[in-house]
Amino acid sequence: MKKLLLLLNSICVVASTAATVFACNNVKRIDIEVVPNGTNFIDVEPEMIKGYSNIQAVEVDFLGAELSSQHKIFSSVEYTTSNIKGSKFSKITFTAKNEIGFGYLRLKGSQESTTSPTSQKELVFLKKIFNVNVGKLDIKNTKVIANFNQNQETIENAIKNAIKTKTHGIDIIQDKDYVITGLDRTLSSSKIKVAAKKLSKVIKGEFAFELMKINLTTATDKVLGELPSDNDDQIIEAFLNQNPEFKGLPKTQLQIKSALTKTSGTVTIQIKGTHDRYHGEVVVTYTVAPPKTPNLDTLNAKIDQARLIAQNGKSGSDWTALQNAISTADAGKTEDKAADKTAALESAQSSYNSKLRYFKCKNRSSQTYCSKW
To answer: Which residues, if any, are the signal sequence (predicted)?
Structure first.
């Protein structure tokens, strides 16, 4: 085939019609592929058609002569131009019939003349011939970008879409046109292989790719909020809870990068050693909740209650004893001392209340009232 193409590049065939002649000096051939029933296009560079007008695209035979309808391998061939933002773009769009073989496309047009611009110009073939291989497309070197954070269905769709870029949109069906090995719902392997089936009418060949590791920097939530403490385990656990995309990553596989990074509520978390699915590091922020002091809270409530009672009291040794007990409870309050201080204040308050009731009873004339106390 290579020898034939070399020969074709060196010969010039004159068409049988006077309306079309060949400008076949230094004929250049360009290879392109399409599947049966598939559509593809060729971008036409401005230099290809410089000096020509009335451009047409036609199907030719292997020698470069225009074909009659019964011998054509393409169902349609069209040359079009368009203007996008002031720039002119040209292309040849072609659709293959449902058969395998080689087809050839060529542009022809009228050579522009500055001496007689209005005269009738004959059509001539331009120098480039496009060799089109109509048949199965080789899927080798197909690129698929996928990672462990995606599920099996998403990765299968990515594989199919990547293959369709090779087939120029012609649909292909998994297990009919190609098979996938190494991919399951648990993503147990990082190496995926895709091979065309022999009976496929569209594709051939095979390719392989590896699932990309997930980088910690892709975490969706890097603000961990309020934590009970800045303990390493607390920070790591909060990070995993707020980023479910890392649910397959054990807490033991993460570590704080260094003690020096834990400053002002900011810390760097990184993978410990190496992992087959995850890598990298991420900077997260957090705040530490104030320590809980239940005993101190109880003591403060008891002090407020005792002060309220004392406000309605009268002078005397019992009232003075309660005031002293309040002052003692309020001085040097800490969580570890609060329980004892609360008990002492409750005892003083109870003693004061008993004596206050007795005092009120002595000043009552009704014995029935006093008997209640």
So the answer is: 1-23
Are 41 and 121 contained in the same domain?
Answer: yes
For residue 127, give the nearest of 40, 61, 30 by alpha carbon: 30
Q: Which pair of tokens denotes residue 224? A: 């961990």
What average pLDDT does the chain have?
84
pLDDT at 279: 93
Q: What is the domain-level CATH number for residue 28? A: 2.60.40
Burial pattern 314-339, b for ≥16 Cβ within 10 A else e, equals eeeebbeebbebbeebeeeeeeeebe
Q: Are 130 and 74 in a shared domain?
A: yes
Residues 101 and 178 in one domain: no
Find the helix or strand (DSSP H, E) in which 70 lies.
none
The last residue of one of the domains, among 82, 100, 134, is 134
Which of 49, 52, 69, 53 shows the shortest CA–CA distance to 61?
Answer: 69
Which runs of consecutive H residues, i.e. helices, occur in the chain?
A: 2-8, 152-166, 232-242, 294-311, 317-330, 335-362, 367-371
In a domain, 21, yes or no: yes
Please give the Cα distance from 331 to 347 (Å, whole number).
Answer: 17
Can you tell me the distance from the alpha carbon of 330 to that of 154, in angstroms, rounded to the nearest whole number? 65
Q: How many CA atoms lie within 13 A of 176 on its CB side?
A: 6
pLDDT at 319: 77
Are 37 and 59 a contacting pair, CB within 8 Å? Answer: no
Q: Does residue 369 fall inside a structural domain?
A: no
Given pLDDT bands bounded at 50, 70 and 90, which one contains residue 372? very low
Angle, CA of 324, 325 and 330, to the nearest 5°: 100
For residue 231, is it within any domain? yes
Q: Does 175 share its domain with 283? A: no
Please calculate the CA angle 43-47-50 and round it to the nearest 5 degrees: 115
| Averaged pLDDT for residues 64-72 | 90
